[in-house]
Amino acid sequence: MTSAPLTPAAAPLAPAAAPLAPAPAPLTPAPLDREAGYALLAELAGPAATATLAGLDALAPGFPDWIVTSLFGGTYQRPGLALRDRQVANLAALTALGGVDPQLADHVRYSLRIGMTKEEVTEVILHLAPYVGLPKALAGLRVATATFAEAAADPTPAPRPDAPENPETPEGEA
After folding, report:
1. Span 105-150, pLDDT tens digits
2. How far apart are CA 86 and CA 89, in angstroms?
3. Which of 15, 29, 81, 171 is close enough to 85 for a disulfide, judged by CB 3.0 to 4.6 Å?
4. Alpha carbon distance 174, 169 (integer Å)
5. For 15-41, what is each residue's pLDDT tens digit?
6. Measuring CA to CA, how many Å separate 64 from each of 2, 76, 135?
7. How many C-beta atoms surround the C-beta of residue 72 within 10 A?
8. Positive or negative torsion for Cα 115, 119, 123, 126
9. Cα dihedral 136→93→73→148 (10° resolution)
10. CB 98, CB 88: distance < 8 Å
11. Residue 135, C-beta contacts closer than 8 angstroms, at least 6 positions apart
12. pLDDT digits (tens, 9 = 90+) for 58-92
């Protein structure tokens, strides 16, 4: 009895590849404003961002710049949502995701810095309980509570949301 050879049979040649489809119409360029990204991060995070970015850059060179440019200089620069609305979405997404306590704490701080109240931040997280589950909502509330305590102990004033971006110096004053 003879057995079949162990080498695979030659596969038939594949037909020639179809020509590539024509390129789509030009796409709308995404806003990527590195300078605006760093300015927004400074507004949201304050001076703590510099140390965090430096530490991350030491570990993963270029990665923090990519984050700031694409996220704060890109996604955040899109029209359609106010910064407060973006923060509500971030609080909800991070609470729902779970396991991202440092990022959730950052966004709780950012929310406070742009003028959201502790009650509003709490309500966003509490509102999620029926959707994401009690354990994730409770974990989010734990992070928020600790962040509120840290913010209360921090003597650095948060920027006022109603303050003008470029206050003018009255004439005659330098």
Report:
1. 999 999 999 999 999 999 999 999 999 999 999 999 999 999 999 9
2. 5
3. 81
4. 7
5. 666 677 777 788 888 889 999 999 999
6. 64, 16, 31
7. 23
8. positive
9. -40
10. no
11. 98
12. 999 999 999 999 999 999 999 999 999 999 999 99
Long-range Cβ contacts of 161-169 (<8 Å, 24+ apart) = 161/114, 161/115, 162/115
The continuous run of DSSP H or E covering 138 comes out as: helix 134-153
Phi, psi at 162, each rounded to 5°: -95, 0
How many Cβ atoms from other residues are within 10 Å of residue 15's Cβ?
6
Which helix (H) or strand (E) segment is 111 a member of? helix 101-113
- Among 39, 127, 137, which Cα is nearest to 83's? 39
